[in-house]
Write a sequence for this structure.
């Protein structure tokens, strides 16, 4: 039984490797869809889910601010009808970001250690094929953003992607790396909120929403280094100056834990929550004080 399972796994891996070396036009559409999925797989829980959640919460808050007597269930139903637009826009921009990042030589080297199943280190796609896909995706995402009235936010996102990848902002040091991640993700949060509310860009969002966006920048800026903890080995191979490699793994974990506790009190205060809101956040399990091996298990959860 065990031998049959091993043979099946070997045959499946061999088939994928053979398919990967076929010309792009000869590969099946299922192969291509799976490849796109692999580009964005690890970011679904760190980008797509938080961005959609932020947009829905801000949407409810903005409706309630305009009309305190508004029916929450009716508002949620209206917002969920717009959710597919948010998911499609966010995922397409995320795909663009990941294509631009994962095609770089340093990223391929890092992924060959940390995530060898990704399309480029596993030879499902070549860097040149990735570049061609980017050439088509860039105008496509721009047109989609124009249709959804968030072209400015999308173009600003392209600038951050260019700075992070092609200008090697991700390798400048952990502070620059964290800052670019923070402003880029907050920009996507602003765009997603505009889409779900059918606004003409983030300029029409209320001051209250902008306060939350500034808070998002601060929170991500001081905590995003946790994503570098499972990637220590690959980042070291690529000579990346991430916080765990610059100040040390244990220091990074304790600093992040302290900051998370701080934000767990500050964020409910910003949102004017009652005691229950504080308890809900503070009783959530803190997952930063573990080892690299544990991080690798969690990061492979998707």
């Amino acid at each position: 039984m065990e031998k049959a399972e091993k043979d099946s796994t070997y045959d499946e891996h061999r088939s994928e490797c053979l398919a990967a070396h076929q010309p792009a036009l000869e590969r099946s559409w299922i192969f291509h869809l799976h490849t796109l999925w692999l580009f964005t797989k690890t970011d679904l829980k760190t980008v797509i889910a938080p961005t959609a959640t932020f947009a829905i919460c801000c949407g409810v808050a903005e409706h309630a601010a305009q009309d305190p007597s508004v029916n929450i269930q009716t508002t949620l139903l209206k917002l969920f009808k717009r959710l597919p637009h948010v998911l499609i826009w966010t995922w397409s921009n995320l795909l663009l970001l990941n294509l631009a990042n994962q095609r770089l030589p340093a990223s391929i080297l890092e992924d060959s250690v940390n995530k060898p199943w990704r399309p480029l280190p596993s030879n499902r796609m070549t860097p040149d094929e990735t570049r061609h896909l980017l050439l088509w995706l860039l105008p496509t995402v721009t047109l989609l953003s124009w249709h959804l009235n968030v072209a400015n936010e999308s173009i600003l996102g392209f600038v951050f992607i260019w700075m992070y990848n092609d200008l090697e902002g991700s390798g400048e040091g952990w502070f620059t790396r964290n800052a670019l991640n923070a402003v880029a993700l907050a920009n996507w949060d602003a765009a997603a909120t505009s889409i779900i509310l059918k606004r003409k860009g983030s300029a029409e969002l209320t001051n209250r929403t902008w306060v939350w966006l500034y808070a998002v920048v601060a929170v991500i800026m001081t905590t995003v280094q946790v994503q570098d903890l499972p990637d220590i080995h690959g980042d070291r191979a690529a000579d990346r100056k991430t916080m765990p490699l610059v100040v040390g793994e244990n220091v990074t974990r304790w600093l992040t834990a302290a900051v998370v506790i701080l934000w767990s009190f500050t964020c409910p205060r910003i949102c004017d929550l009652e005691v229950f809101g504080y308890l809900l956040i503070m009783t959530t399990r803190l997952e930063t004080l573990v080892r690299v091996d544990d991080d690798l298990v969690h990061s492979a959860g998707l």
